[in-house]
Design a protein that fits this description.
Number of domains: 2
Helix content: over 70%
Shape: globular
Distance between the termini: 44 Å
CATH class of the largest domain: Mainly Alpha
CATH superfamily of the largest domain: Na+/H+ antiporter like domain
Mean pLDDT: 80
Number of helices: 17
Low-confidence stretches: 6-14
Strand content: under 5%
Radius of gyration: 24 Å
Structural class: mainly alpha
């Protein structure tokens, strides 16, 4: 009879939990794509209804936060885009950290394919956009808008094709989208942050040191980290960098290993099980002892998961079903009536649309071909050129991150409106093409082999 140690049991349990975490992540992303679509549709209807004026007025209502004599008053739009979206970037940072530790980016062999594909999916769309807009510096600032992929929408559309799509194709899309997010974060940090103030980075560094101190003394609960998180966020804001980058920094700092156990979880389970079996014999006066044991068991179960998995699993549904739809509702309201028909606006819209619909698949498939051709990597099991093309088409769904970058790149209302229209139109066309090709790909997979 094969003996299995407690450590091996714990390791198997953690592996199963990691797989369940990935499945849960994909499930939440797929469902949130529907919520995002509804929020975007509501924003478009509101912005083009007889109540269009109230759309802009509502999101620019002032919202003040008071702390003693300190009063910070900003628009509702600011608190959503620069405040709540920090939580979105926190989840992105933790997902990147987890993928680097144990996921698709954990080894060079696994990472080369999605990294190469993502690089092609950034470079080619940027070149297509600049080929139409490089002549005007104001228009050229939107070069990064079509380089991003919206994970929620892309995974949501892929989910519509059913479970017959190979698992490794789904993982390839997820890994590529995560690398896209990494590149987008770097682009925001280096190209859309101006007039940097060194003093702000000192404040941010202080917040990081506080967070590291909390980790050092073994604080496992997420709530205390709100304080250093707020300090880091304020530091980036003072420095002139986009404050949402604080979320990425803190996400990348999240520990990937569980806290040391004060008592082996299996010992806790054994002890509590024994107490439950004799619970009928326990007097009412001893019930507190049983409650304490149950609380210990709950804590042990929590501590078996590393913080990067546990905190992300807790925050992800809130981000997917609240933060991102709220962002879409506040920013997707493009006014279609009286749209600016100037050459500059048309060029921005066309450049973003073409870059998403054409540039993304060409860049991803082309870069993948080069990586395979030169022997840098090979396809995982179940991934074929048809699957790569499907991923390339779905990666053209930009939406959340693309609109976010557009708002950083364009200060002029007409060009910003044109950029949003390009993102929405390009994302819709990319989704339609992805679904169409996906149906063909799915049919070919189900054909009996001769």
């Amino acid at each position: 009879m094969v003996q299995v140690s407690r450590r091996e049991v714990s390791r198997i349990s953690l592996a199963e939990r990691a797989l369940l975490t990935l499945q849960r992540f994909l499930h939440v992303e797929a469902n949130s794509g529907v919520v995002l679509l509804l929020a975007a549709a509501a924003a478009l209807i509101w912005a083009n209804s007889p109540f269009a004026a109230s759309y802009q007025a509502f999101w620019h209502l002032p919202l003040s936060i008071e702390l003693g004599d300190i009063i910070v008053s900003r628009s509702l739009h600011f608190w959503i885009n620069d405040g709540l979206m920090t939580v979105f970037f926190l989840v992105v940072g933790m997902e990147i950290r987890r993928e680097i530790h144990e996921g698709a980016l954990s080894t060079t062999d696994q990472a080369i394919l999605p990294v190469a594909a993502a690089a092609g999916g950034v470079i080619v769309p940027a070149l297509i956009y600049l080929s139409l807009n490089a002549g005007d510096p104001a228009q050229a600032r939107g070069w990064a808008v079509p380089t991003a992929t919206d994970i929620a929408f892309a995974v949501g559309v892929l989910a519509l094709l059913g479970r017959s799509i190979p698992v490794n194709v789904r993982i390839f899309l997820l890994a590529l989208a995560i690398i896209d997010d990494v590149i987008a974060v770097l682009i925001i940090a280096f190209f859309y942050s101006g007039g940097l103030q060194f003093g702000g980075f000192i404040v941010a560094a202080l917040g990081i040191l506080i967070a590291l101190g909390f980790q050092r003394i073994g604080i496992g609960s997420a709530f205390p980290y709100v304080l250093p998180g707020a300090v880091v966020w304020s530091g980036f804001l003072i420095a002139g960098a986009h404050p949402t980058l604080a979320g990425v920094v803190l996400g990348l700092m999240t520990p990937v290993r569980p806290s040391p156990f004060r008592e082996d979880p299996l010992d806790v389970l054994s002890r509590v099980s024994q107490e439950l079996r004799v619970s009928d014999a326990i007097d009412r006066k001893d019930s507190k002892s049983l409650e304490t044991s149950l609380r210990d068991l709950k804590l042990a179960r929590r501590e078996m998961l590393p913080p990067v998995v546990r905190v992300q699993a807790s925050l992800h549904p809130w981000v997917a079903y609240s933060v991102m739809p709220l962002f879409a509702l506040a920013n997707a309201g493009v006014t279609l009536t009286g749209f600016d028909s100037s050459e500059a606006a048309q060029s921005v819209t066309l450049g973003i649309g073409l870059a998403l619909v054409v540039g993304k698949p060409i860049g991803i498939v082309g870069a993948t071909w080069l990586a395979i051709r030169f022997g840098w990597c090979r396809f995982p099991s179940g991934v074929s050129w048809a699957g790569v093309l499907l991923v390339g088409l779905l990666a053209g769904i930009g939406f959340t991150m693309s609109i976010f970058i557009a708002m950083l790149g364009f200060t002029e209302g007409a060009l910003l409106n044109a950029a949003k229209l390009g993102v929405l139109a390009g994302s819709v066309v990319a989704a339609a093409l992805g679904l169409s090709w996906g149906a063909i790909y799915k049919f070919r997979l189900q054909e009996p082999r001769q």
